[in-house]
Amino acid sequence: MSFLEARRQAAQQERRRSARFTIDIPVTLRTISGNRECRMANISDNGAKLETDTPPREGVSGWLIMGGEEIYCTVIWSKDGACGIEFERSLSEDKLVEIAGEQVTETVPVANRGNIQMGRKRGSLLGKGLAKKPEPQSEPPAQTQFEPAPEPEPQKLPELQSEPEIQVRPEPQPEPKPEPKPKPKPGINNPLFISRLQAISAG
To answer: Which residues of 35-69 are buried (b: 16+ CB within 10 A; e: fewer)?
Structure first.
């Protein structure tokens, strides 16, 4: 049960414990969206019922203005043409009588919340004074829970193969050419000349 729902039920029980005075006086409900001219249909020390063409939604807070009197309140239920408000602080008996005054048409006794549901008009009661039992509500169909499909396993990427190293062979270097031996110069020290000279001398 939400906090708002629990608060609404508690407010309903508290509101129903107090006697309500049926009245019909003009009031103004001031909220953040502006002022609404309303008719107060009944009032108790804890809250009141307001009739208006544009009731504020449930949970809206504002000020109930009655002449020079301003009371801080919160909307605890809302429907077409009416809404119920809860006072921030309970009204004293003297203040309640002062507000109602001679406008009271009848005193509504403490209601049995088993017979009257919150926000339902008394005109919905049956002729014998018993509230019509609400029709049983069919249970909502059970929601089938679907298990999420398993996620596909991530595909392994193929490992990159390293490229083979290219061996660069050194280019063959040309063998150095032997330097030519210098030819002997003709002269006295030339061996060829000496050998010829010896041959001539021997002959």
So the answer is: ebebebbbbbbbbbbbebeebbebebebebebeee
